[in-house]
């Protein structure tokens, strides 16, 4: 019979592989215990990229994701299955075609959707034009960082239009996408180095709010309402230690959706709260409001970067946040 020493040798365990480093342990990082690290990553990783790409501040565009553009190449109108989705809505919910409208063989829903789709296509083109105007102007500003960079939620619809207009003007443009249960993709006009994807809505909202010097709200649904009132509330309560210019685009749409005068009448908001935003119905009017607000609050006097900074360098910025980092203003 084997003695105790021989039995110990026979039962000796196999050698262990090296344990994974904590930051390479996906089981931990994806677990509830790793949530705080995931949240911090959605702060630190965008910060590093904004710093590298010399982004100082932004102009944010909100609006519906559900409608396709009335594109100059195919003129196809589609209603999406869901916000940000790549999948079409069911055929019965699609807007009527031109032939169907002409023949009268269509449902009232499809007829109304056709009218709405044409209207939303106009807003797409207006957002595209306005984003191009903002970017062309911002590119003329001196300094070592990119100013008033057009930013969207990164998806289709109005978001695509904003990124597209900035891209056509030859400027950088940011997309803050969100990971959702249904299929969705970033639009192709986002600057690749500034294409973000968030898990947490609140971290995405942080980056919307704390780089923005202006906000343009185009017609939209739940998400647009949520984002618009989030920033209006921060401004109303003076949580933003900066002045933000808010343009609500499409007065006839928004005055039907939200009765601001009724909120004042019932005492839910103060009359001066109506001064937190301005309506606009053309790209030219919206650009005038944006340019006036951005110049007055962020370019005139001490708020402006020195002209001696010259044009924005082509090469990425060094990692000196105090010199070239994003213009994140602390809350009060």
Short summary of the structure?
It is built from 12 helices and 7 strands. It has 332 residues and is an alpha/beta fold.
Description:
With 332 residues, this protein is an alpha/beta fold. It has a domain at 41-76 and 122-304: Rossmann fold (3-Layer(aba) Sandwich), CATH 3.40.50.450. It is built from twelve helices and seven strands. Strands 4-3-2-1-5-6-7 form a seven-stranded parallel beta sheet, with helices on both faces. Helix 6 links the parallel strand 2 (149-152) and strand 3. Helix 5 runs parallel beside helix 6 (158-168). The longest helix has 31 residues, at 108-138. The radius of gyration is 25 Å and the shape is globular.
Main features:
7 strands; 12 helices; 332 residues; Rossmann fold; alpha/beta; globular; 7-stranded parallel sheet
């Amino acid at each position: 019979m084997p003695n105790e020493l021989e039995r110990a040798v026979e039962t000796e365990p196999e050698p262990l592989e090296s344990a994974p480093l904590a930051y390479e342990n996906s089981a931990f990082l994806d677990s509830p215990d790793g949530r705080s690290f995931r949240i911090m990553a959605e702060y630190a990783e965008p910060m590093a990229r904004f710093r590298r790409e010399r982004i100082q501040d932004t102009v944010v565009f909100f609006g519906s994701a559900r409608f396709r553009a009335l594109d100059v190449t195919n003129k196809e109108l589609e209603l999406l299955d869901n916000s940000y989705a790549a999948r079409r809505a069911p055929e019965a919910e699609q807007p009527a075609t031109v032939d169907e409208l002409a023949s009268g063989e269509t449902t009232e829903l499809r007829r109304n959707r056709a009218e709405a789709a044409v209207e939303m296509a106009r807003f797409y083109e207006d957002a595209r034009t306005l984003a191009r105007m903002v970017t062309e102007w911002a590119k003329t500003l001196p300094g070592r960082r990119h100013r008033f960079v057009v930013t969207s939620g990164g998806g289709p619809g109005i978001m695509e239009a904003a990124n597209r207009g900035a891209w056509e003007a030859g400027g950088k443009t940011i997309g803050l996408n969100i990971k959702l249960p249904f299929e969705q993709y970033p639009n192709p006009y986002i600057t690749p180095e500034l294409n973000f994807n968030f898990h947490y809505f609140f971290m995405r909202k942080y980056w919307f709010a704390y780089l923005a010097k202006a906000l343009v709200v185009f017609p939209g649904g739940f998400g647009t309402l949520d984002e618009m009132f989030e920033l209006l509330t921060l401004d109303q309560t003076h949580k933003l230690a900066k002045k933000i210019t808010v343009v609500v685009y499409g007065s006839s749409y928004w005055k039907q959706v939200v009765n601001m005068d009724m909120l004042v009448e019932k005492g839910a908001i103060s009359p001066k709260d109506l001064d937190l935003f301005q309506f606009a119905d053309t790209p030219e009017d919206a650009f005038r409001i944006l340019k006036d607000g951005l110049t007055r609050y962020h370019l005139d006097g001490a708020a402006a970067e020195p002209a001696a900074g010259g044009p924005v360098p082509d090469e990425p910025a060094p990692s000196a946040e105090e010199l070239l980092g994003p213009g994140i203003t602390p809350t009060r």
